[in-house]
Design brief:
By secondary structure, the chain is of the alpha+beta class. It contains 13 helices and 19 strands. Pfam families: FAD_binding_3.
């Protein structure tokens, strides 16, 4: 591709700014689920958008990553107008069973516990089932240019503009934008280049993820089982498959991954339980380290962080991706409102509205997941007694149970307009 062709490719469909010199109102770096959700949420905003993604093939797709999609995330996708394309390829769950190892008192969360217009509490989606419909939707947005593969080389902030140097097929071009959004993951180069510090830690645990097919139906049920070594989740998928997320100390996790399939299944069955009969292992197992991270700030003048670029949490409860989807919906709402009011979307006063909205809510969830992991991942007798008393109360005190459930599925906190029904 010549530089002339590249320039033609990056000519925005239209520009909304009355200031000369901008190529795009908004440049999003990172074409994963969160970056795509942000672009899709701005379809009717009147803003010209460039979405840049470095990799043609997502590592998450290659590893068969899967996620819990909470009720609020589903409503956001519905508000965007893409949910009907996603729903046929994902699984629903109608109840969640929460338990502490072999303790017999199981907390059962069901749709009857809350006032909901759907029979489901949530959904489970493989990465491709979210990514592909979002990619197709964004490619049909007249105000979005989707560039992949492309690499951001450098960025330079000025008072009223961000210069973004990108490389495509070995050739470079400079793009000028009002606002740069980092949706480029937990190792965000954009965040690091901006000098934004983070706080947090790596856990003593790693997660093993794998697909299994049980002998009996998963019956649209998700499980969160807490063991001394860490949480163990079972997520239902289409085709009577399940995704397991097995948390264990690093060395134990490595040893489990090194077992033969037969040995691994024998260990897995002890954690999984007998409720679905014999298990069949499908495909490879993968392991990843768990960390908690919160950026010191989510915004600077003409820069905003979303998703894993801003925060990471323990996978217990399946909160991570859902927080990023809410970030995208919140930022879209803030900058679209500002644009409609004639304000500069890159001004720090505008972006601070997004930071005030999302930073505290994300911190609350990060703290909640950290507390769950630490309280349940041990066998200290006083802690065991307290947590089992908590489960007993949760099962028998409706207000406590409803609060916990709404927190888990995203119905606590401020709801973006896209998520309101």
């Amino acid at each position: 591709m010549s530089l002339t062709q590249l320039t033609q490719t990056l000519t925005p469909p239209h520009t909304t700014t009355d200031k000369p010199g901008y190529d795009y109102d908004l440049v999003i770096v990172g074409g994963g689920i969160v970056g795509l959700t942000l672009a899709a949420a701005l379809k009717n905003s009147g803003l010209s958008i460039l979405l840049i993604e470095a990799r043609v093939t997502s590592a998450a797709v290659a590893k068969g990553q899967a996620y819990a999609v909470h009720m609020l995330s589903a409503r956001i996708f519905q508000g965007i107008g893409i949910w009907d394309k996603i729903l046929p390829n994902i699984a629903k769950y109608r109840q969640v069973f929460l338990s502490d190892a072999d303790y017999p008192d199981v907390v059962k969360f069901q749709t009857a516990d809350i006032d909901t217009q759907t029979p489901e509490l949530g959904y489970v989606a493989e990465h491709f089932a979210l990514l592909e419909p979002l990619q197709e939707f964004v490619k049909n947005c007249a105000n979005v240019t989707y560039l992949c593969p492309a690499e951001v080389v450098t960025t330079q902030n000025e008072k009223d503009i961000v210069n973004v140097n990108i490389k495509v097929d070995g050739e470079q071009q400079q793009i000028k934008t009002k606002l740069l959004v980092a949706a480029d993951g937990s190792r965000s180069k954009i965040r690091e280049a901006a000098g934004i510090k983070t706080k947090g830690w790596k856990y003593w645990q790693s997660c093993i993820v794998a697909f299994v097919r049980p002998e009996k139906s998963h019956n649209y049920t998700a499980y969160e089982k807490f063991w001394q070594s860490g949480p163990f989740a079972i997520l239902p998928l289409p085709g009577n498959r399940c995704r397991i997320v097995w948390t264990a100390p690093h060395e134990e996790a490595k040893a489990l991954c090194a077992l033969s399939d037969e040995e691994f299944l024998a260990e897995l069955s002890q954690r999984y339980g007998k409720q679905m009969g014999k298990l069949e292992l499908l495909g490879d197992r993968f392991i990843f380290q768990v960390q908690l991270m919160q950026s010191d700030r989510y915004v600077l003048p003409r820069l905003a962080l979303v998703g894993d670029a801003a925060h990471n949490c323990h996978p217990v409860g399946g909160q991570g991706l859902n927080l990023g989807i809410r970030d995208a919906a919140a930022l879209a709402e803030v900058i679209q409102t500002a644009h409609q009011n004639g304000a500069d979307i890159g001004k720090i006063e505008i972006l601070k509205q997004y930071e005030r909205w999302r930073k505290k809510e994300n911190l609350a969830i990060l703290g909640f997941t950290d507390l769950l992991d630490r309280v349940f991942s041990n066998n200290i007798l006083p802690v065991v007694v307290i947590r089992r008393l908590g489960l007993w109360l949760m099962q028998r005190v409706p207000m406590l149970k409803i609060f916990a459930l709404k927190l888990m599925i995203g119905l606590k906190g401020r709801t973006p307009e896209l998520g309101k029904m």
